[in-house]
Amino acid sequence: MGDMQSRTERGTADLEIESLRQQIKDLSSKLADAETLIKDFQQKERATAVRAAGDPAVETAPLSELDTTLRRLVQRIAMILQAEKVLMMFFDPETGELGAIQPAYGVDEDILGMVRLRATHGVSGEVFREGKPVIFSDAVSDPRTKHESFGLLQVRNGLCVPLIIERRDEENRVIDRTSIGVLHVFNKRYGEDFNDEDVRLLERMAKSAASVISNLRLYQAIVEEKEELLQTLESLYAGLMLVSVDGTVSQMNASARALFKVGPEVMGSDYRDIIADASIRELIEETKEGKEGLQVEVPMVGERGERTFQVQAAQVKNEDGRLIGTVTIFNDVTELKSIERMKSAFVATVSHELRTPLTAIKGFVSTLLHEQGFPEEERLEFYAIIDHECDRLTRLISDLLNISRIEAGESLKPDYTNVDIRQLAKKVLMIQKQSTARHELLLDVPDKFPEIIGDEDNLDQVLTNLVSNAIKYSLDGGKVTVHLKVDSDFILIGVEDEGIGIPKEHLSKVFERFHRVHTEDNRKVYGTGLGLFLVKHLVEKLHLGTLWAESEVGVGSTFWVRLPIKLDIEKAEALNK
Ligand code: ADP
Questions:
Q1: 11 in a domain, yes or no?
Q2: Residue range(s) defining the domain that contains residue 376
Q3: Lowest CB count within 10 Å: 66, 127, 430, 544, which one?
Q4: Count of structural domains, the chain
Q5: Is residue 364 part of a domain?
Q6: What number does the ligand 1 atom closest to the CA of 353 have?
Q7: Ligand 1, atom nearest to 513 Cα
Q8: Is the CB of 86 inside a 6 Å radius of any atom of ligand 1?
Q9: 3-state helix, strand, coil in the chain (%, to 5)
Q10: Is 36 within the bounds of a domain?
Q11: Whose CA is nearest to atom 25 of ligand 1?
């Protein structure tokens, strides 16, 4: 049960980490590809820019350079073809539409945004689909211009050619032609019409335009993709660091930066200046040298105090298989580790808890069997002890069974009736009194106390658990008081002791399964750490109540339970389906 649970938890967590690791590896190598592409691109563009400017010192950003080139081209087209307007449309495969793009000539920017039509319509659609130029001399009467925004653009006549990208092989033969849009010139000056000579000219210029546009789009797409990848890496819960072959940090996401307490300016610095831990450094170096599947577990002080991180590294290669760096992932495995620790402690304590009553039972039964002649009084005392130890065993086993039911998500099948809590508390105190001579057990209850709706057996278990804890954790004896109070539509049950108390940092944790406070004082008190977990479940889930503890170390503790007087049974049952 508890054992199995942790094992499966561990298993799924491992799987998750493994798939996360794979995802991160993929993302990192994509990112690296995008970065190489962008670098290549920038180099090429810079080279052209420098050549064009004739001045090796000039460094223009490639994006704006491409943009300027395109603007000049559009102006030149207008001049050479003596057109009043030049307009380019780009095909968007997602919408199936052709839409006007920047830059244009002689067209208002506001209007530009409105010019779009389906690629199945109009002259533009025809030119785009057929890949052949079209001249039209009377935009108003030409039936092909239906659906076009020519009215808006005040077009009289025009010439329209496809924007085509050609891919060529080594011998310069065209191996692929893709239409990416259309190029329009409108309104030939001096009242003329466009002619075949214009077609030839425009087709030539359309080729340059198409290649610039496609480069521009490609560049933008790469930049966007890179941005997206960076965002994804940045927001990963796991820490991630990408170290280039030369040892400089090329990426470090927010989680990793928080872990090493560095800011975004860390990119570009040597990773050894950031990571002092020898085992992580070794991991990175060995991975770089080709060892695979390495991982180490390292304690680190993060935002949430001391935590254990599982650190894994892998090589990152580009498309041609060239090593470009290593990616290191930091996973917080503190919870997993502590569950594992608790599991071992649990197995030890449960074994002890089972053995102790069994040893007592066996001892007394053997004595009674083999040694006759005990006086009646002593015999009865032995039987009482056996009876008591059997109860203890039964309680433990039923706790274990209930926990395993809760963990399997099964309902504890409550049986709701009217419960007299005052009577119940009296009974529990009476039974618990038998196990201790050193404690004074008291009930503090007003004269009139209401019955509530609840499951009697479960509420018995809640009270028994709290009272027996109060006795168990006040080693020197003292008073144990059960307070019953009415608080508008609720009742309050308080179990107060004068025992060892609970340190502040454990106050809310004692309700977690397996959680036990380990101090010099309670070292000899055995338990499983399951009782309060169960109590919490019974109170909150089965009775829609609340449970909390107040305590001062060395003074004592009070556990409070707040329960509705009139439990909404339907709601409680729905919650426990
Ligand atoms: P167990 O008693 O079997 O260890 P519980 O779930 O009942 O498990 O309690 C969890 C832990 O909470 C205990 O191990 C103990 O450290 C602490 N605790 C519970 N009740 C008290 C109390 N009345 N006084 C001091 N410590 C307590």
A1: no
A2: 337-405
A3: 430
A4: 4
A5: yes
A6: 3
A7: 6
A8: no
A9: 50, 25, 25
A10: no
A11: 501
- Of 102, 142, 96, whose CA–CA distance to 122 is shortest? 142
Q: What gap in Å lies between CA 560 and CA 547, rounded to an integer? A: 6
DSSP string, 186-228: EEEGGG----HHHHHHHHHHHHHHHHHHHHHHHHHHHHHHHHH
342, 346, 510, best to mutate for ligand 1 pocket (most atoms within 8 Å of CB):
510
Please report, in tens digits, the pLDDT of each residue of the chain (577 residues total). Answer: 444 444 555 566 666 667 777 777 777 777 777 777 777 766 665 555 444 443 333 334 466 778 888 899 999 999 999 999 999 999 998 999 999 998 999 998 888 888 989 999 999 999 999 999 999 988 888 888 888 888 888 899 999 999 998 888 888 888 888 899 999 999 999 888 899 999 999 999 998 899 888 888 888 888 888 888 888 888 888 999 999 999 999 999 999 999 999 998 999 999 999 999 999 999 999 999 998 888 999 998 866 778 899 999 999 988 888 999 999 999 999 888 877 877 777 787 778 778 888 888 999 899 888 888 888 888 898 898 898 889 888 888 888 888 888 877 776 778 999 999 999 999 999 988 888 889 999 999 999 999 999 999 899 999 999 999 999 999 899 999 999 999 999 999 999 999 999 999 999 899 987 788 877 766 667 677 888 999 999 999 999 999 999 999 999 999 999 999 999 999 988 887 7
Q: Cα(155)–Cα(122) distance, rounded to whole angstroms?
A: 14
Is the shortest distance between the CB of 469 and ligand 1 below 6 Å? yes
Q: Is 444 found in the same domain as 392?
A: no
Closest residue to atom 14 of ligand 1, CA basis:
516
Token pair for 390: 């059997």
Residue 322 corresponds to which amino acid?
A: R
Q: Examine the fold and report which residue of 304, 332, 360 is the final residue of a domain before the chain moves on.
A: 332
φ, ψ (nearest 5 deg) of residue 520: -60, -40
Does 253 sit in the ligand 1 pocket, CB within 6 Å?
Answer: no
- Ligand 1 centre distance from Cα of residue 514 (Å): 10
CA of 526 to the centre of ligand 1 (A): 10
Instruction: Please check whether residues 175 and 288 belong to one and the same domain.
Output: no
Ligand 1 proximity of 527 Cβ (cutoff 6 Å): yes
State if residue 510 touches ligand 1 by the CB under 6 angstroms criterion. yes
